[in-house]
Write a structure and sequence with these properties.
single chain, mainly alpha, elongated
Length: 162
């Protein structure tokens, strides 16, 4: 038995490295590259990602739409002509949020605002529950792009006087 212990440890370490590499590489596959993916809303993400959804619910992103004035919502812009709505909702101009009446589930800055439309990811995950195999192109990105809305060239303190 003692002669097998080093081999067992070596196999165990090799498996751990393989799992780590598989997870690390899957984090680089962006959902936004999924042709035909549709926005489904953060409530659908909660089905599998309850902890992340709870954390999101405590962030300002989960209430971003509420920061807009009725005029900004109606026109989509502030009094200086700057676009507001696109950064306070999910998927604006990309097949996502259109209006509160048409797409209330995409109001606020939800999961898909950063991770991309989730319909294909959700379908692949549901299918994977049976087979435990998830195609690489259906894994959602962990690399989020914040600068689309959080632009370093915008001085928010100056903009809002705070």
């Amino acid at each position: 038995m003692r002669g097998r212990a080093p081999l067992f440890i070596l196999v165990l370490v090799a498996c751990a490295v393989a799992v780590f590499l598989a997870l690390a590489s899957s984090a680089l596959v962006p959902a936004v590259g999924q042709d035909g993916a549709k926005y489904i809303g953060s409530a659908k993400c909660k089905m599998c990602h309850a902890d992340q959804h709870k954390a999101w619910g405590e962030m300002k992103h989960s209430k971003a739409f509420d920061a807009l004035t009725p005029e900004q919502i109606k026109s989509g812009k502030d009094d200086k002509g700057r676009t507001c709505v696109s950064c306070h909702v999910t998927g604006y101009g990309k097949g996502g949020f259109e209006s509160v009446e048409k797409s209330e589930n995409l109001k606020h800055v939800g999961c898909e605002a950063c991770h991309g439309a989730g319909s294909q990811h959700q379908a692949a995950m549901l299918a994977a529950m049976a087979s435990e195999v998830v195609p690489e192109d259906k894994k959602i990105s962990r690399n989020v792009g914040c600068v689309g809305c959080h632009n370093p060239h915008i001085n928010y303190k100056k903009l809002y006087g705070k």
